[in-house]
Amino acid sequence: MPSLVAVLQQIPIFAELEQRVVAQLAARCVPRTVGEGFTLFRAGERCAGLYVVLEGRVRVYRSSPDGREQTVAVEGAGRPVAELPLFDGGPYPASAVTMTPSQLVFLPRGEFEHAFRADPDVAAAVVRSLGGRLRHLVQLLETVAFRDVAARLAMLLADYADQTGAAQGDGVAFELDRTQEELAAEIGTARESVSRALKQLTTRGLIRNRAGNRFLVAPSEQLRAWARTGGM
Amino acid sequence: MPSLVAVLQQIPIFAELEQRVVAQLAARCVPRTVGEGFTLFRAGERCAGLYVVLEGRVRVYRSSPDGREQTVAVEGAGRPVAELPLFDGGPYPASAVTMTPSQLVFLPRGEFEHAFRADPDVAAAVVRSLGGRLRHLVQLLETVAFRDVAARLAMLLADYADQTGAAQGDGVAFELDRTQEELAAEIGTARESVSRALKQLTTRGLIRNRAGNRFLVAPSEQLRAWARTGGM
DNA sequence: CCCGTGCCGTGACGCTTGTCACAGAGCGGT
DNA sequence: ACCGCTCTGTGACAAGCGTCACGGCACGGG
Fold this sequence. Notes:
The structure is a homodimer.
Chain A: H1 4-10, H2 12-15, H3 19-28, E1 30-34, E2 39-41, E3 49-55, E4 58-63, E5 69-75, E6 80-81, H4 85-88, E7 95-98, E8 102-108, H5 109-118, H6 120-146, H7 149-164, E9 166-168, E10 171-175, H8 180-187, H9 191-203, E11 207-211, E12 214-217, H10 220-228
Antiparallel strand pairs in A: 1-8, 2-7, 3-6, 3-8, 4-5, 4-7, 9-10, 10-12, 11-12
Helix pairs in contact in A: 1-3, 5-6, 7-9, 7-10, 8-9
Chain A binds a DNA duplex through helix 9.
């Protein structure tokens, strides 16, 4: 395993810091290795510090009293989790749980705040990170408010194709390592609706092929275009 | 009209700056007075600078191709609009239009960025502001994803009661200067559904009295509690 | 005074989607 | 090989809500 300093320097938020400062932060970090389904924190709890994902996948979500869940973000290696409440001192706005066995580091709040105030580059990086979340949320809100389930799913597949897909013929191939239950939470619907929407997208030719987790889909622009026009 | 410097110093984002710095910013501000229904910018345009509302009300929204709208925020006096895209250089994620005749100041991007990097207090204020938006959005997303129209409306009324309400008996009285159309856009539904939801809340006793814009509603905690449990 | 315009209430209808119920498939453990 | 578990597909049904259509009301201007 490489030194913690080297690892932190790979991470966008810390990338622009001087090595000396990173080393100081690294000294205060608490590494954690946890299994699948481990809850990092729950919505409403007071915020103790920042998590950064080194390996694995963390799901950030809101849950309703009757058990349904809406996923707000899924964070992978190198991404910070819950950088928001560090500053205004408020509670976590959402809950977080690991989707896979994961390695994380935990950085206590005081340490991070110090770095934030000491270095404008850190501040800028934090603002960019928050900005990205905000953009993503506005986007998500729009699709949940306006589009039907099939369109939302098409959007999700388009994102996935862009992130992890490989061109194959005139389409994109990728592996979708999520259950339908998890997909449903991401687009704010029920598991059964995802199943039906997948069938619908397949008959429309937007999903060309599907075997287990292997997907072959139409180009992402085509998926998005279809979703934007409400389908047809 | 008071000097622009004095006005800017009232505004949270600039409140902590030294007077000299504020004066410098004020010199670069462009004041604008616009009527109702004036579009400040549209989603997707490149961001030129920051708006701050001095007087009036600005609605920030996303619109769907088929004409429906989801408002993301309503900003009043002293609030910044679109501070997000200033930093990552991306386009506006939403559109903005005035709901009333308004006075604004416009601060070109370069100026603001300079202040941001020069003063960690400004950076902290920006992060707090973004944080507030993010919290609000997560909240909004949850209600749109989980709750029915009546519950969303109850939430909205609770917010309104907290912001501008006056206790009256065991309830809260306030004036709601919005059309049902605007309410519908805020909670992501259709005008007619708002009308029906208002009736429903009235028969349930959560709205005690309603005459034109004057509302008398149950205490905000009661409204929120009812909304959270899905009603009944 | 009458008409146009904007806002609000309400009925009818159909589509989407959440829910319940159940069957089959894959898979790992014993 | 058998069981139990999770994941998936599918049918039936009801509720919520968006849409259309229409009528009433207030208000302001000619």
